[in-house]
Amino acid sequence: MGSAFMKLCCCCCYDSGDDDDEDEEKQPLLPQDPLEYFNREVQKRRDEETNLWSEPGDPSHSERDDDRVLYGLLQARNKTRMGSTGYRRLSIGIDAMRDTRREVRDKWKTVMEHLGFTAEADSLLTVSAGASYDRMRNAPAARAMLNTLHSETSLFSSREPPPERYLLILDRLLYLDIAEDFLEKARSFYPPKDDSDEEESGLAINLPLLLARVEAMNGKGNEDEDESGGDDENLIYDEIKFQPKACTVSH
């Protein structure tokens, strides 16, 4: 006890004022555990991939309109000068589409957590672009349940088909024998809404028109963005319309 007290006194009384500047210079650019930093970066890229494709088994990323639009926006942004007005506007469209997918995923995660799968929710909901339908254990039942969730809950938008990636997730839930519980909880938390009453989730995107605009931009090749790309980028921006978010109450 005495030894510990002396160490505490020494630490408190030690004048380190002369070494403050030296300590600041020695602060590492990376965290103390570089492995933790790289793990976070890898997880960040995986999260982006998870929220990128609706069709996990589609190597072209072009089977669904929303996948094709998002891929087109990413390609258009890659050809646009970073920091330009067009680059920022394209980024708004990309972020809007990714946010919409994250909102759907967050609904699923909420239901999973209320079923008691708080620690396992992220892993159960993770589907990479390299996932295979061939490994599904009960594809017909997963398909039937996905259609039921689409028609009897508001987990998805009623205006477009549900993302195929959730087939793989439902197959996991069926294997764990919790799919029916998930369905009942989803019905309770997110009941279906009439088309006229369905709330917009922050940003509404006219996918067909936006897709046409992106394809038109890509068809022009690598022209100078400031001279020829501004009008097309303005048109793309016009298709991304801000909507006020409605408040939701957690159950």
TrEMBL record:
Residues 18-67 are annotated as: Disordered. GO terms for biological process: melanosome transport. GO terms for cellular component: melanosome. It holds the Pfam family MREG. Residues 38-49, 58-67 have a biased composition (Basic and acidic residues). PANTHER family: MELANOREGULIN. This is Melanoregulin. The lineage of its organism: Eukaryota, Metazoa, Chordata, Craniata, Vertebrata.
